[in-house]
């Protein structure tokens, strides 16, 4: 049996130790300064939200109910906040105005000119106020969303406005996140 060189063995141990230490240092640097965090995306000083009925400034009635309901459900399911039914028990209140409900044609049947696919667009101005401090967390932000439908598939305006209200509610919840 041959004997191994002790200097070579020490060099290998040194190189492995140096590589492990360098890897540990690099992994720590990535977590702290790299922008990664396990902190919540939503403000921590808020626990409850009161959702006011959205105003409707358009000529289409009923969409404001769909939007308000969709927003309350999205806040409950996608945020750490609890929806309360009384403004007096809420930390914050979210409100807004449905400024526009539009319907447009996306595609038409070539032969007879009948619409094949239509789209509903919703636009709203949203406010979110902290009732404890008086601070406006969202101040008059305009948000829009849309959804398409086809009468050929037994879908109508009500179907698309419900989808658009859900899409708009999702965008409003995204606005509730803290800035990065």
The level-1 CATH class? Alpha Beta
- Judging by the overall fold, what is the CATH architecture? 2-Layer Sandwich
Tally of individual helices: 3
Q: Determine the N-to-C terminus distance.
A: 63 Å
* Number of beta strands: 6
Indicate the structural class: alpha/beta
Number of domains: 1
Low-confidence stretches: none
Strand residue content: 25-35%
State the CATH superfamily name.
Lipoprotein like domain
Q: SSE order in H/E notation?
A: HEEHEEEEH
CATH fold call: Double Stranded RNA Binding Domain
The biggest sheet amounts to: 6 strands, mixed
Q: What's the pLDDT, averaged over the residues? A: 87
Shape: elongated
The helix content, as a percent range, equals: 25-40%
Radius of gyration: 27 Å
Multimer state: single chain
Describe the structure concisely for a colleague.
With 180 residues, the chain is α/β, with parallel strands linked by helices.
Q: What are the SSEs and their pairings?
A:
Layout: H1 6-33, E1 48-51, E2 55-56, H2 63-78, E3 82-83, E4 92-108, E5 115-130, E6 136-149, H3 157-175
Parallel strand pairs: 1-3, 1-4, 2-4
Antiparallel strand pairs: 4-5, 5-6
Helix pairs in contact: 2-3
Describe the structure.
The protein has 180 residues and is α/β, with parallel strands linked by helices. The chain has a single domain, classed as Lipoprotein like domain (Double Stranded RNA Binding Domain, 2-Layer Sandwich). 35% of the residues lie in helices and 31% in strands. It contains three helices and six strands. The chain has helices spanning 6-33, 63-78, 157-175; strands spanning 48-51, 55-56, 82-83, 92-108, 115-130, 136-149. Strands 1, 2, 3, 4, 5 and 6 form a six-stranded mixed sheet that branches. A hairpin with a 5-residue loop joins strand 5 (115-130) and strand 6 (136-149). Helix 2 (63-78) packs across helix 3. The longest helix is centred in the N-terminal third of the chain and has 28 residues, at 6-33. It is elongated. The chain starts with 5 loop residues before the first helix and ends in a 5-residue tail after the last helix. The mean pLDDT is 87.
């Amino acid at each position: 049996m041959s004997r191994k060189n002790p200097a070579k063995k020490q060099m290998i141990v040194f190189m492995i130790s140096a590589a492990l230490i360098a890897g540990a240092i690099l992994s720590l640097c990535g977590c702290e300064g790299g922008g990664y965090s396990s902190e919540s995306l939503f403000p921590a000083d808020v626990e409850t939200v009161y959702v006011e009925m959205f105003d409707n400034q358009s000529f289409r009635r009923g969409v404001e109910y769909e939007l308000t309901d969709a927003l309350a459900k999205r806040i409950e399911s996608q945020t750490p906040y609890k929806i309360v039914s009384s403004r007096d028990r809420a930390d914050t209140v979210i409100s807004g105005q449905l400024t526009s409900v539009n319907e447009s044609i996306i595609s038409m049947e070539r032969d007879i000119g009948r619409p094949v696919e239509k789209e509903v667009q919703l636009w709203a101005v949203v406010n979110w106020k902290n009732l404890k401090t008086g601070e406006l967390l969202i101040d008059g932000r305009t948000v829009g969303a849309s959804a398409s439908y086809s009468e050929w598939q037994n879908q109508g305006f009500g179907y698309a406005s419900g989808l658009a209200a859900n899409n708009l509610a999702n965008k409003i919840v995204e606005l509730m996140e803290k800035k990065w």
